Amino acid sequence: MAGKQAKTLSADHIDDLLFFAERSRHPLRNRLIVLLSVKAGLRAAEIAKLSWDMVLNPSGEVGPILELQDRIAKKRGGRSIPLHPDLRPALKEALRLGKGHGPIIVSERGGAMTPMSIVVWFNRAYCALGFDGCSSHSGRRTFITRAARLVHKAGGSLRDVQLLAGHRSIQTTQRYIDGDSDTQRKLVSLI
């Protein structure tokens, strides 16, 4: 898939991916991998390196914001991402079952999963589901595209999407956003 962008996921694709995760050997961990990608827009390396200190508040509870630290973000571009209503309960469950320190996404051997392990997990999931053209970046592209389409409803701008994505350039953010031919037809009919 060199030179091509990862495909974005529809709501049905996300449901299928979550269904796949729920029926795997590590359902909660794998559900978190999917949700961190599609509901927080994290890259595979950020998912692998995410630790509990980035989501817990001073009381040791899952807070309302994911504080992605510079040390794990691409080009040291840390950022604050409000937790999606689907992601927060999954993190709370993982906290209840886990230690509350160290990596959030843990391998079978007990340590942090590597970024490549996250990439491979997504690849296996998409192959099993028959999703061609999808990669570990598909969830991130989906997150950014959806955010761009809905930002006006929240009273924001593309700059807000850029900040959530952790991009230094608005042009980079724009390259992530998929166009929608139905929307384009509706738009032209309004002119």
Can you describe this structure in just a few lines?
The chain is mainly α and 191 residues long. It has helices spanning 11-22, 27-38, 44-49, 87-97, 115-129, 138-150, 158-165, 170-176, 181-190, and strands at residues 65-68, 79-82.
Folded structure, characterized:
The protein is mainly α and 191 residues long. It has a domain at 11-140: Intergrase catalytic core (hpI Integrase, Chain A, Orthogonal Bundle). It has nine helices and two strands. Helix 6 runs antiparallel to helix 7. The chain is globular, with a radius of gyration of 17 Å. The termini are far apart.
Jot down its keywords.
hpI Integrase, Chain A, 4% strand, 9 helices, mainly alpha, 191 residues
